[in-house]
Amino acid sequence: MTDMPDTTLTGDPSHDAPAEHGDDAVGYYTPGDPISDTKSPEGPISERWQTRKFEARLVNPANRRKLDIIIVGTGLAGGSAAATLGEAGYNVKSFCYQDSPRRAHSIAAQGGINAAKNYKEDGDSVHRLFYDTVKGGDYRSRESNVYRLAEVSTNIIDQCVAQGVPFAREYGGLLDNRSFGGVQVSRTFYARGQTGQQLLIGAYQAMERQVAAGTVEQFTRHEMLELIVVDGKARGIVARDLVTGEIQTHLADAVVLASGGYGNVFYLSTNAMGSNVTASWRAHRKGAYMANPCYTQIHPTCIPVTGSHQSKLTLMSESLRNDGRIWVPKSKADCDKDPRQIPEADRDYYLERIYPSFGNLVPRDIASRAAKNVCDEGRGVGPEVDGVRRGVYLDFGAAIERLGRDAVEEKYGNLFDMYARITGENPYETPMRIYPAVHYVMGGLWVDYDLQSSIPGLFVTGEANFSDHGANRLGASALMQGLADGYFVLPHTIRDYLVDGPFEKIDESHPAVVEARRSVQSRVDHLLSTNGTRSVDSYHRELGNIMWEYCGMERSEDGLRKAIDLIRTLRDDFWRNVKVLGTAESLNQSLEKAGRVADFLELGELMCIDALNRRESCGGHFRAESQTEDGEALRHDDQFAYVAAWEFGSDPDSGGMGLPVLHKEDLVYTAIEMKQRSYK
Amino acid sequence: MKVTLKIWRQPDAASQGAMHTYELDGVSEDMSFLEMLDVLNEDLVARGEDPVAFDSDCREGICGMCGLMINGQAHGPEVTTTCQLHMRSFKDGDEIVIEPWRADAFPVVKDLVVDRGAFDRIIQAGGYISVNTGSAPEAHSVPVPRDDAVRAFNVATCIGCGACVAACPNGSASLFMGAKVTHLGELPQGQPERDSRVVGMVAQHDAEGFGGCTNIGECTAACPKEIPLDVISRLNWDLHAALRHGH
Ligand SMILES: Cc1cc2nc3c(=O)[nH]c(=O)nc-3n(C[C@H](O)[C@H](O)[C@H](O)COP(=O)(O)OP(=O)(O)OC[C@H]3O[C@@H](n4cnc5c(N)ncnc54)[C@H](O)[C@@H]3O)c2cc1C
Ligand code: SF4
Ligand code: FES
Fold first, then answer.
1. Are B146 and A424 a contacting pair at CB < 8 A?
2. Domains of chain A by range and CATH?
3. Helix H segments across chain B?
4. B103 touches A: beta carbon within 8 Å
5. A75 CB within 6 A, ligand 1
6. Partner residue facing B53 (CB), from A157, A315, A589
7. Ligand showing the shortest atom-to-Cα distance for residue A97
8. Do the bridges between strand B69-70 and strand B73-74 make them parallel or antiparallel, or are there none, so unpaired?
9. Residue A19: what pLDDT?
10. Is A385 helix (H, G, I), strand (E, B) or coil?
């Protein structure tokens, strides 16, 4: 097999060398040049976006239809961009792996979308939304991007209402808001527990209208497997038609990745089964920097794992923490008892005990880690899976007593039904069991203020980029970001790039196209011909276990080093021993999964290296070595107030993975002061 | 528990299909129906047999990607999606017949996977409100009575799964269309295009080869989102109104 992807490493980090403080990852990477975001204008933060919009050059309407744009992804970020760029008259090609653009994972978002409308007159403003988002992100996001996000948030609501998105309303006919995710104002717009669905259908319908108008061409059941880069510019993609197996070349003047998050590297997550990193990772291998890959959000209120057959985890809305009380037994001996038989005095309401002022409403990262700690102590509840009980009670007993069953049903009925359907237990009678699960990734491809990656002509939007949420995302802010990027930011910034197009015509015979197609073909051939003994899922599950154990809620230097070794061994074994049946020329779901898992196996290592490098705790990233005396996260702004943007360390000799190169982008705050978070 | 599975296998659109029988042991009642099929597929791969192709993505009942005929019922015995059906709805020794959606407008792609592209084309024919990005008025400029908003929302929850079509003896997509026409027609923003929307969508529906509605009601019984039958009355009413208006 000549084209076997080489997974050997060029460097051999010495595991025994004592790491200097802050230099844990020495030997695992090569230091690179610092980067700065050159596109963000100077000046007062509230004027930067206006300035940039004005300075970004305009494309003559007559020229737009000569310009081709590829958009990978049809979620909120991709669907909204396809609709808007189509309306503007560009030639758009839109790709998704599902059978319809409407099924992108954004559809699953429940809780709501933030916007600084201040309809409640409760002191909200663009500046407060900006402030809350930067603080919630633990001061690890880029302030000019976040400010812009808060600024355009209000336009999103106007746009969606005009499209017919049926947001919740008050009796007077005006829009209702709720408070969400531990902030003190009510700025979250919602459509019962299906906000993502309603927003996505709005974007989908707008996009389908452009399909009918002929400006957008949609490619469903197509998977992007390679980026085409010509003379340093992104000029197209190689995609596989998942029904016929045909490997296709699609060329364009610019490429937009809106391909979502990579939480499925953990195998079990609340993401859809097909959510993947392939589009981003292939671009990363072609030169796009991957920023802060270790920043993962673990959501505290998910339904626990029941056994090894488990294929995904289900989120229960965070709103449950408004009325439910979280507890475990004080004594291990009580853990297998019927919870109703455990008297009050023997229950440990640990969040209320440790965080008296925020109690059950502490931010997601804190609630998750506390649950892990009590289960690690052996005080978890529910069935044992692999010898451990991983669950804590979320108890509505007191709420039912206080408010009455009807009131609880009115508020949470659909969630209780979902819980009952999945677990077979009645949460009105016996406390729910919950456990944290991987939910969202703040990390993603590095982009500048224009949402352009380090490859000119490659733009990245939505969860696939890194820019707005720092080390932790606030509830109801991902939907806001996806739509901000797609409706209101990208359409302005991409024109400044496209105005220099159309670029030189290329065709299938161009060496860059030939190379990209060959790379896709050889991977497909390799996966199908290995004919080993282990299924793709078994590798994915094992990778997930490694990531969850060592790069999950708590990370340590030793654990991360071990994880890197384990992942390298597993990856090596994968390429020798994976078993993928069927042919390349038909619908082959095992082959699709194999390609995705192959990329997760590379991403997982980079996530561990990034986590190892960042010897501080911030947001969703908790390093055991960096905590206060009472176990709280401790940031080190003097050393780590930067974005870690990793360049793929290609090794031309072997064609495989070399050491990644670390480029640092310093985070400078001019409009906000950095503080340590406290929720006690 | 142990179950006997009779599954439709068809290599591709052009080939003939047939039912195949598989025995599966060690099924837990906590498994979802699709996790049970995952286990079967792991077994098949281990034995060197091609795994069964079926669609799913969110596995939370919201994306509309999954959908199987289970013992002759679209999405199986409960009012939910296939992915949210759990094995506790079955018992040890059961025989379970699994087929793809059957409808002329949904050709089989492979095994249990069908092509529902016709639904996208129906939406393209008018299932939207024409408003370009950036041209929207302030959100509070048009109040919407709460009851109208609630009614619009209730039918906007359609997930586009196609169970209504699969359940209908005529293979009609009237429930799906009625849900969209009602969603947009309940809102003030949807009024300007109300006539052209319904005319366009119905014409596309017929061109795709979906059948006509004869008020049997199987669609609403199979719908995992409980879209009510009266959306079809609304669809017909709007269509006649549009024709009266000269569309
Ligand atoms: C259960 C759940 C609940 C949530 N609730 C909320 C909430 O209440 N509020 C909130 O703000 N956020 C919420 N989030 C987060 C939010 O939903 C997501 O971050 C956001 O929707 C991501 O949107 P996106 O457009 O970036 O990507 P996605 O919606 O994930 O779309 C990705 C698209 O890329 C396509 N794609 C991916 N890879 C390829 C490839 N290789 N080739 C071709 N196409 C590809 C897919 O087909 C899809 O169309 C929730 C997330 C989950 C999982
Ligand atoms: S109306 Fe119901 S059954 Fe038909 S597509 Fe919509 S959700 Fe599915
Ligand atoms: S897989 Fe999404 S609805 Fe069933």
1. no
2. 61-294+441-498 (3.50.50.60), 299-439 (3.90.700.10)
3. 33-46, 117-124, 146-156, 163-167, 174-185, 194-207, 218-222, 230-244
4. no
5. yes
6. A589
7. 1
8. antiparallel
9. 42
10. strand
Contacts of B206 (CB under 8 A, 6+ apart): none
Q: Reply yes or no on domain B3-110 having CATH 3.40.30.10.
A: no
Question: B53 to chain A: which residues are within 8 Å by CB?
Answer: 587, 589
B residues 172-211 near A, CB within 8 Å?
183-184, 187, 189-190
Q: Residues B98-137: pLDDT tens digits?
A: 999 999 999 999 999 999 999 999 999 999 999 999 999 9
Residue with tokens 């045909």: A246
pLDDT tops 80 at residue A115: yes
CB contact under 8 A, B120 and A167: no
Tokens of A654: 């072997």
Are the beta carbons of A465 and A450 closer than 8 angstroms? no
Burial of A348 (0-12, 13-18, 19+ CB in 10 A): middle
Q: Return the ligand 2 atom nearest residue B74 CA.
A: 3
Token duo for residue A330: 């004080």
Q: Which CATH architecture has domain B116-244?
A: Orthogonal Bundle (1.10)
Answer whether A489's CB lies under 8 Å from A119's CB. no
- A82 to chain B: nearest residue by CA? B133
CA–CA separation, A352 and A350 (whole Å): 5
B142: exposed, middle or buried (C-beta count within 10 Å: 0-12, 13-18, 19+)?
middle
Q: Distance between CA B77 and CA A561 in Å, rounded? A: 49
Q: Residues A44-102: pLDDT tens digits?
A: 999 999 999 999 999 999 999 999 999 999 999 999 999 999 999 999 999 999 999 99
Domains B3-110 and B116-244 share a fold: no
- For CA atoms A404, A407, A412, A416, the dihedral sign is positive
Which residue does chain A place closest to B112, by CA atoms? Answer: A587
> Per-domain residue ranges for chain B?
3-110, 116-244
Tens-place pLDDT, residues A341-368: 999 999 999 999 999 988 998 888 889 9
